[in-house]
């Protein structure tokens, strides 16, 4: 199953291996990035690629990227248009997908892997040097002039001492499977947006990591899995996915051969795969969806579809951008040498409680909110916990909390409900070492069931919320707490993307 590829056996400390059933996801490791950085010196002195002259026009080679594998597809950067990119793009186009020249000069949009030093970065899109192509310029044609090869293979081809080249460059294909093929679709399907402005960065971050982690193959015949890097964030992006699939089917044989099986996409929207229309879901029934939302049954009050198909789709942790990542990293007590602070309080939640954004007040009847608008918010879980437990000693269930960070270090349990779709607290509180309390019926959590959530969290059915305090009391014995906290130290490593937060828990990044 695909999740088992993504979530891999722990290879950290012995203690951690015992505590954590299944571990490091390839997305989460730091190895890839290091390898790429070190490898670059080696590779840029290489060469060894062949450019087929004349596949694209000279104009295209000068201004754009020529995909030589597809017989000379000219990929324009965002500010250019036309067959061989000789026209200027319309200003409205730039406004929608890029930024002003002024802004770009001050704060340039990033390019995937900085174009692997084989191209230049223009408004967030690589313009690859002649002979190189792919979203980060890591592809080129091999000696036969037809089969595409990746960076590592290029290094080997560069020198006669292939042996020496491969041992001196830390960038190399992973030995363990899976091997993943990434379709090099035109920008308009995948990267035609400003990566600095997108609020959920997983698509971009994953993309950047794929190459560095050594799982990518240049030849689709060798792949176990195929990634269609369509940007999927909103409902309408679903239609673009259908267009992207059409493009993929026209240019490569594998989608039709596998009838869409072993192909995967990301959707980072609130309700993941449930966010696209039924038509899109049906047309892509064999795809594996990676999303943040694990709802397995329809939830009518909020109009939520049964988005997640266990065994087919994978719930992945929310991606905190580098700012959030660093702010958490600085405070987390999960570093192996950090002192274990005693946690004296019981249950913490701070955030929106009422669907209508009002401040809940015990003077009102259930659900304590000003109106019943959006009462299906968080499946009613936040409202329920507040209603029954807001005034209990050792409990803090509030909408605003100026002591949030110290509280996250001082409470034993932290409520991690859903929101207007997926929540992010299960990830945040885990990073802070607070045991997640999951009140979210029919919603699977990141990497569940491959990751054993029962080992480090507690799940309480919504029907049992009234007696929640008794359950927590029963589960808060010193040994039981310690056992879960040990397991959480390991599990939390697999919910954070080291690329944005750094390896602050000293995860070794091997897998
Ligand atoms: C790209 O280059 C910039 C500036 O040198 C650097 O800060 C950034 O980390 C690089 N990004 C990647 C993915 O290598
Ligand atoms: C999904 O795969 C099955 C075979 O496993 C095939 O019969 C069906 O047509 C495929 N559905 C779609 C929507 O591609
Ligand atoms: C909300 O609905 C409940 C029944 O579920 C009702 O008792 C309550 O009065 C309603 N509140 C408001 C403000 O309409
Ligand atoms: C909370 O409980 C105390 C007694 O334990 C009571 O005096 C107080 O009025 C309660 N406050 C609210 C807001 O319900």
Automatic annotation (TrEMBL):
Its main location: Golgi. Keywords: Golgi apparatus, Signal. Belongs to the glycosyltransferase 47 family. The keyword Signal applies. One of its GO terms (cellular component) is Golgi membrane. It is found in: Golgi apparatus membrane. The lineage of its organism: Eukaryota, Viridiplantae, Chlorophyta, core chlorophytes, Chlorophyceae. It holds the Pfam family Exostosin_GT47. Residues 74-85 form the EGF-like domain. This is EGF-like domain-containing protein.
């Amino acid at each position: 199953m695909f999740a088992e590829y993504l979530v891999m056996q722990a290879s950290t400390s012995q203690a951690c291996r015992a505590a954590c059933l299944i571990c490091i996801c390839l997305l989460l490791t730091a190895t890839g990035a290091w390898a790429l950085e070190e490898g670059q010196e080696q590779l840029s002195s290489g060469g060894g690629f062949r450019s087929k002259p004349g596949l694209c026009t000279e104009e295209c080679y000068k201004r754009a990227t020529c995909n030589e594998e597809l017989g000379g597809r000219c990929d324009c950067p965002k500010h250019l248009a036309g067959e061989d990119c000789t026209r200027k793009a319309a200003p409205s186009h730039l406004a929608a997908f890029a930024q002003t020249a002024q802004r770009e000069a001050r704060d340039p949009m990033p390019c995937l892997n900085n174009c692997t030093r084989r191209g230049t970065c223009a408004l967030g899109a690589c313009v690859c040097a002649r002979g190189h192509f792919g979203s980060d310029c890591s592809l080129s044609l091999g000696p036969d002039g037809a089969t595409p090869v990746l960076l590592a293979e290029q290094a080997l081809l560069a020198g006669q001492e292939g042996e020496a080249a491969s041992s001196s460059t830390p960038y190399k294909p992973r030995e363990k499977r899976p091997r993943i093929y990434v379709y090099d679709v035109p920008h308009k399907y995948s990267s035609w947006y400003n990566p600095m402005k997108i609020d959920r960065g997983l698509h971009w971050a994953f993309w950047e990591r794929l190459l560095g982690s050594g799982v990518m193959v240049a030849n689709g015949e060798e792949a176990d899995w195929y990634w269609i890097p369509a940007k999927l964030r909103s409902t309408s992006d679903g239609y673009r996915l259908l267009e992207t699939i059409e493009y993929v089917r026209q240019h490569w044989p594998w989608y039709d051969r596998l009838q869409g099986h072993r192909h995967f996409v990301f959707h980072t929207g609130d309700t993941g795969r449930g966010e696209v229309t039924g038509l899109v879901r049906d047309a892509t029934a064999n795809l594996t969806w990676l999303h943040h939302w694990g709802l397995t049954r329809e939830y009518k009050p909020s109009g939520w579809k049964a988005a997640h198909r266990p065994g087919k789709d994978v719930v992945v942790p929310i991606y905190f951008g580098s700012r959030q990542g660093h702010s958490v990293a600085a405070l987390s007590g999960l570093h192996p040498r950090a002192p274990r602070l005693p946690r004296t309080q019981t249950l913490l939640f701070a955030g929106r409680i009422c669907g209508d954004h009002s401040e809940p007040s015990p003077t009102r009847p259930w659900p304590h909110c000003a109106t019943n608008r959006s009462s299906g918010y968080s499946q009613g879980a936040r409202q329920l916990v507040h209603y029954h437990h807001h005034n209990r000693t050792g409990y803090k269930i509030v909408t605003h909390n100026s002591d949030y960070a110290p509280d996250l270090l001082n409470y034993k349990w932290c409520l991690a409900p859903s929101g207007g779709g997926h929540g992010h607290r299960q990830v945040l509180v885990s990073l802070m070492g607070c045991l997640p309390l999951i009140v979210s019926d029919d919603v699977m959590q990141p990497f569940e069931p491959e990751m054993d959530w029962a080992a480090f969290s507690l799940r309480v059915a919504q029907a049992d919320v009234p007696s929640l305090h008794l359950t927590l009391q029963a589960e808060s014995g010193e040994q039981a707490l310690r056992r879960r906290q040990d397991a959480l130290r390991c599990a939390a490593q697999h919910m954070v993307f080291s690329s944005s937060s750094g390896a602050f828990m000293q995860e070794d990044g091997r897998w």
